[in-house]
Amino acid sequence: MKIGFISDVHANLPALEAVMKDMSARNVTQIYCAGDILGYYTFPDEVVEILRRKGVHCIAGNHDRAVMVGTRNMNSIAAAAIEWTREHMSSSTYDYIRDLPNSIHRPVEEVMVAIHHGSPRHMSEYIFEEHVSDELLAVAGAKLLVLGHTHVPYHIQFPTGNVINPGSVGQPRDGDPRASYTILDSSEWSFSNFRVAYDQRSVIDSVRENHLPEMLASRLLRGT
After folding, report:
1. Are 4 and 28 a contacting pair, CB within 8 Å?
2. Is 42 part of any domain?
């Protein structure tokens, strides 16, 4: 079985569509999302509709929760995008985001998998590759721990299991502007990260048309 992991879509519809098409071509049969479905970009309803239609197993990220509770701890750019989202998303999207769990903890192919946005300790904790230790696997109570939030992909293997971050679909920050996701081939228990080009110009145009901060547009071309 091929299982896809995505994170940090951030309402970037063209990026999500490109990733879904690529996963379909690679025969991915099950997909999990490590949060931050909304925020930054301008297609909240369309993104949620795809995730629903494709049966993606999703958790909430800090931006998704901010849609519910406010932007007190966010920088001004992130907060502006959240406020735009609150004003423009449908009630159906609001209900979907409200009902998302904060984590997933379940066996996949008889291996216990935990999916958290930031870390098993806190949704907003940044776990970059240099911070990863097998202690995280113990805290999560899993053999495979999937994280998001950093927008930077990695895979680290320990004797006790694996920690992965699939990177960001909607706003990569590792210097590669292409959308990022990861596939687990459970027959070999191997992980592969993939990058997918998409139409960034349409997203940039929408940011500007909706008077969101210019940085949200320019960083898509830099991948930082």
Report:
1. yes
2. yes
